[in-house]
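Most newcomers find our protein records easier to grasp once they have seen one. Nothing more is needed to start thinking about how sequence determines fold. Here is such a record, shown just as it appears in the course material:
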Amino acid sequence: MSNQYRQNAGRRQQNQHNPSMPDPRVLDKGFTENQEVLLDSYARKWGEFLAGKKLKKAQIRRFYRDIKAIESRIQDDGDFGRNKQLIAMLKAKAAYATARQDASAPPEFRELMDAAVKHAKHDWDQFKGFVQFFEAVVAYHYAEARD
């Protein structure tokens, strides 16, 4: 067995116990490309990672509720542009959640939200993809979280 193979095997084993943060740059192409990958493996990585970082179910549920409320509002009034500021506010809410003294959300959650909102605020299709992605993250988080 080569040294390279042993080193890679060791890293894989270490990552199973201490997963590294998924790369937010995966979202650089937005939510309309590679949706299957985003909704399956990438959302799973984030859900498991955030559960490992002890993000509480109540905290992620709060964000999910806000996202679904924005989606409903856009559908009701039919004007995506008038609601862009609500989508942009998700970044501020994530910053607040990670900066509070009791830090109810890990700093990596803010990185995820910053990368996601960057694309979600562009148009309705991107936002719908974001809603589906976040729903998948929540589902995988619930499967792993212990609180």
User: Anything to note?
Assistant: The two ends are 42 Å apart (CA to CA). The chain has one domain: 34-144.
